[in-house]
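Last lecture ended with a question: if I hand you only a sequence, what can you say about the shape of the protein? Today we answer it with a concrete record. The protein is Fibrinogen binding protein. Below, first the input exactly as provided, then the predicted structure, then a couple of comments.
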Amino acid sequence: MKKILISIGCAFATLTVNAASTISISKEISYKNPLVIVNGYKIRFVDYAKIKPEHIESIIELEPEDAVEVFGENGRNGAIIIKLIDSFKGFSLEGAKIDERIIEKVAYYAEQAKLKEQARLEAEAKAKKDAEEKERLAAEAKLKKEALEAERLLAEEQAKMNAAEKAKKDAEDKARKEFEENQRLENDAKNRADAEAKTKRDAEEKARLDADAKAKKDAEEKARLEAEAKAKKDADEKARLEAEAKAKKEAEEKARLEAEAKAKKEAEEKARLEAEAKAKKDAEEKARLESEAKAKKDAEEKSRLESEAKAKKDAEEKARLEAEAKAKKDAEEKARLEAEAKAKKDAEEKARLEADAKAKKEAEEKARLEVEAKAKKEAEEKARLEAEAKAKKDAQEKARLEAEAKAKKEAEEKARLEAESKAKKEAEEKDRLEAEAKAKKDAEEKVRLEAETKAKKEAEERARLEAEAKAKKLAEEKERLEAEAKAKRDAEEKARLEAEAKAKKEAEEKARLEAEAKGKKDAEEKARLEAEAKAKKLAEEKERLEAEAKAKRDAEEKVRLEAEEKKKQALKELEDQKNSDQASADFINKLEQEFKNSINNPKIKKVLIEGKEVTKKEALKLSVFDVETSITTYDKVNGDGTIEIKLTKK
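The predicted structure:
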């Protein structure tokens, strides 16, 4: 089906039909030609080419399926409905008259076809937008997954490093303890060698050590209580600071969301006011131009005023439909943004709940470890006390056995001495009886010397036993003190290691929290910058579209004025060449020439056929009858023009 629908961008803006005598419609249709109706009358398709563009007021084309709905089988090859300007009186129309209601139905089907095409374009745009959104979400999910994987690998690497460091530290501690144990054994051997010489000094030192140990124990107990109070106070302070930080963060987040909502609302209100102001301005400008055109046309012809009024009504209807479509699109965009904001808020809430759960879990784990450490410490303390009690009991039992052995030994010694004394006395008595003459003085001297020797011997034995008991007691006391000192050193070393581990853990936790805070802050800053960039891009795109729309309107207005001027010129020429047989041929040649001139225009820099760019040489191979639409637009900045050609379906 050949269509001649000339775009607003070309010189051949509209078409006009000069109807001659008609032939049978059924015969015309048999040639696969469309049904042609001019001013409500059917005409032959061969007369279609005789119509001049300056005589046409409006033209509507129907596809075969729509034409069948309106005209029945007569429209199975499609239909072209043309209305000529009222001032044209070039020829009279003959043939079958079409009911006005059918013509109105034609306009309805044409409008429906236009709406369907608009809906299709909007559906394609929406599908494209949804696909881009889906790709963006998939990319974000992929980036998030990669970030989590990197974080997990980093945590595993850190755990391995911590384990290696702990093993190294344990080995160093073991070596250090072995060295200290060897040193202690050497010192013990040396101390045992010096023990006898230091017995007296040890007794005094013991009293001093007891006093120092008691004072030290009291000081340690006091320090422990103070440390526990301080730890409790630090924990309470930390919990308070965390609660304040959390409350502050939530308040800041709430304030930020409210500020964003307020800014968004203000931006929407501003955009709405600008759109209303622009629409009002455009309407006023349009009304002014229409009033000028109306005043000009009033001077020429009353019928032209009526046609312009109808065109104005169509334009208002079109503007209303476009406004409704725009409002619908804005509502969908608003709903999408609200859905995105809600999804973002839900994700942040979920992350916050997960962080709270994690913190709670860590606190419970920390409390459990502290309880276990406390239980372990109490068990060790209990074991130490039991060991000390057992050692004390063993020492007492040993002392009791030694005392019994000493008493037994003293009793045996006493019996021996008494027996010896008795034997000596008997010998002395015998000597006395045998030698009464021996001087009494020698006997008394001998008895005195024996008594002194016995007393001296008993004193030495007693001193020796006391010294041994004292040395043994000092050795036991020394061992006890050394054991306590070792236990104390071990406890201090354990406390130091635990404090270091705790400090390290707190430092790591602090670093982790700072890293998370920094990451979150960086992410928020990135999101803010992206949002600003997106807003800026949308604003620029809006300005560009508005500039293009304005340029297009200016071009359309220019073309309309040129078309009106050409119509006047054509009317003048029509007076000179009325009903000329050569008119149709001249019209076709002129149409072809204007089509080629529009392509050869130096300002035209780009030619698109069905959306594909071609050279001017290739475009010139087309006939004007191959063209369904041809639209010319000019760049506002550099003035370069573009022709977009859509071919007929056949």
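Comments.
1. Residues 384 and 484 are 9 Å apart (CA to CA).
2. The first helix runs from residue 25 to 30.
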